[in-house]
Amino acid sequence: MKEKIIKVGTRLVGGNEPCFIIAEVGINHNGRLEIAKKLIDTAAEAGCDAIKFQAYKVDYLYSKKAGKLDWQDKNKKYSYDIYKANKSFELPFEWLQELNEYCANRNIIFFSSVWDKHSSDVLEKHGTLLYKIGSPAITNLPLLEHIAKKKKPVFMSIGGATIGEVEDAVQTVKEYNSDIVVMHCHLKYPTAPENVNINVIKTLKYAFSDVVIGYSDHTKHPYKAPIAAVVNGAKVIEKHITLDKKMKGPDHFFALEPHELKLMVKKIRETEKKIKKGQKVEVDPEVLGSSKIRTSPDEEYLRKFAYTTIITIKDIKKGGRLTKYNICVLRPGKISRGLEPRFYKLLIKKGYKVIHDIPVGKAITWDDLIEK
User: Fold this and answer.
1) Rounded distance between C-alpha atoms, residue 312 and residue 364, angstroms
2) Range of the domain at 226
3) pLDDT score at 2
4) Which residues of the chain have pLDDT under 50?
5) Are 139 and 250 within one domain?
6) Disulfide: which of 21, 127, 214, 341 matches 329 by Cβ 3.0-4.6 Å?
7) Torsion over CA of 267, 207, 53 and 107, rounded to 10 degrees?
């Protein structure tokens, strides 16, 4: 079968085309427009095809009741309010037009991960060329459907997902749009080399032969995993970038600095040339791992924490009906998980009633509901 090729702007992605390389800023702009622009310069100068930010409003991402996150790195322990921290990481929407134009002048594609319908609609107004779904939103089928209807290429990471969840996501988008990129990914950042499992790419190519397969890398090494991914058929590579690993923020320390990004792009292009010539490419066997698509033990906690569920956004009195005004699909944080996002439209359509008072910031379960 001929390999799938999609078009993003003027660039072709997939088939025998050069690997589409994405520099991911994410939240590493630190709320400063000048840093965002310097990162765009960094990506353009390294030869990347695109640069990705994250577009969201925290009220569509987490409940104010999401709790506190405690974690530590090699240097110190951290504890912060999940809602407030993510509020501080928001990309100001008033930057979007300026960043888009800045990218156009640097001949690099600007786009963003989206976590909610509102943000996707804002990006659409600013002429985005594609949409990216991060791993924790892979089960948010209402969001996938909303985005698919916009008829732009949909890139989706699948870190922590089961094969059934990946299939559901792909089929949901295919109802409206066949331009899909499925990106192998590990949910824990940074990813240990032994957990990379690059061989999953072969499984994805077999299971989803009519989409483009890529890889979103979160290992610390600049190029070992990306090269292995390209050798195994990945047509898209994504990697976090920063101006300095020592900058303040949770995603800087494992991201690539400018010289490392240039090195990664150089190694990928060298690898592609070798493949075309039929030459052998040395691959680190440690990153190959398993070909099974499954949730690994170190992803379980992050699934519970970040994969979306249906949560109340207002208090609901006993006997009250569920509506779009009192429930939302959100990441739970420390809230106990409830129903999967796939049930959101059903709950509202049937107007389920609650059998007891439910406070704001609680995940809805079937035990809370009655149909009539």
Assistant:
1) 7
2) 7-56+91-287
3) 82
4) none
5) yes
6) 341
7) 50
Beta strands in the chain (DSSP E): 5-8, 11-14, 20-26, 50-55, 68-72, 77-81, 109-114, 131-133, 154-157, 180-185, 212-217, 236-240, 309-312, 327-330, 353-354, 369-370
Going by their DSSP bridges, the two strands 236-240 and 11-14 should be labelled as unpaired
Q: What is the pLDDT of residue 95?
A: 97
Q: What is the CATH number of the domain that holds 365?
A: 3.90.1210.10
Q: Hey, what amino acid is at 115? A: W
What are residue 50's DSSP bridge partners? 22, 109
Per-residue model confidence as pLDDT tens digits over 229-254: 999 999 999 999 999 999 998 899 99
Among 287, 310, 325, residue at a domain's last position = 287
Asked if 331 and 344 count as a contact pair (C-beta separation under 8 A), the reply is no
81 belongs to a structural domain: no
Number of domains in the chain: 2
Pairing of strands 369-370, 353-354: antiparallel
Query: Are 33 and 130 members of one domain?
Result: yes
